[in-house]
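Our preliminary data section would be incomplete without showing what the modeling component actually yields. Below, a chain of 301 amino acids is followed by its predicted structure, encoded as tokens that our downstream tools consume directly.
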Amino acid sequence: MTGTQLFLQQLANGLTLGAIYALIALGYTMIYGVIQLINFAHGEVFMVGSYLALTLMLALTALVPWPVALLGALLGAMLGCSVLGWGIERWAYRPIRQAPRLNALITAIGLSFVLQNAIMLLYGPTDRQFPNPVPLVRWEIGGVTVTLMQVLVWGVAAALMCGLQWLVMGTKLGMAMRATAQDLKICRLLGIPVHRLIGVTFALGSALAAVGGTLFGMTYGTINFHDGYVVGLKAFTAAVLGGIGNIPGAMVGGVLLGLLEGFGAGYLSSQWKNVFAFVVLVLLLLGKPTGLLGERVADRA
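Predicted structure:
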């Protein structure tokens, strides 16, 4: 493989991983943008989504054609994680919304451990094979291999990210979200149902994480109950890299982090790819602490 072919191959691989990171990072940045909370349990919501999709995929693959099985697993995982995200906000975060921020941080870490151990007890501590019903179709383009699965990941991620951007910037719901991000107290006085809006934000972010979990399992073939910690940390890093609270920034940060990992694996080693990605991240944030596109959420008094 020539140098150009290696570059293009790692570019394709990095875009696939980066699209998954971006979907998860959107949940972090949406929640922070509205209520300035870092939901460290979000990575575990991603992990729960992958297990829900696994369960549905195993049930549907033998009964219906693969596109229907895939769509059913995606929609089922999105619905389940939306309910989980709404429940987390309603029963864990809402009662302590006026408490010091440290309380919410401790609660998020506690929820993370609860979800991890719940999945471990239900599915076991070992890796689970994730069925992939997508046909193994490959295209050779100039010596670079692109699979149908990669194209599917790019297409689904792009469609969801564009849809979210339209929702936030072009609908009344998105206008209410942006208003709440600017001044939550004034929105209450104006009659905006703030609690309901925050619950919807958690549900939307959790649904995107579920799609990321499904695509992650299908791409890499196995899942484990501790995947949420590792992948969630990287997705949070992607959100910070792009600019926390900035939706386009989360997309850019996720793709960039995936590319850094891909090139690190290709040019250094797969064992050092994480080190390479985080070293570049530290260097970038030293020069631009607010992230590449900047933080859009104004500090509240």
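Residues 34-132+192-225 form one domain. The chain is about 75% helix and 5% strand. Preliminary results of this kind motivate Aim 1 of the renewal.
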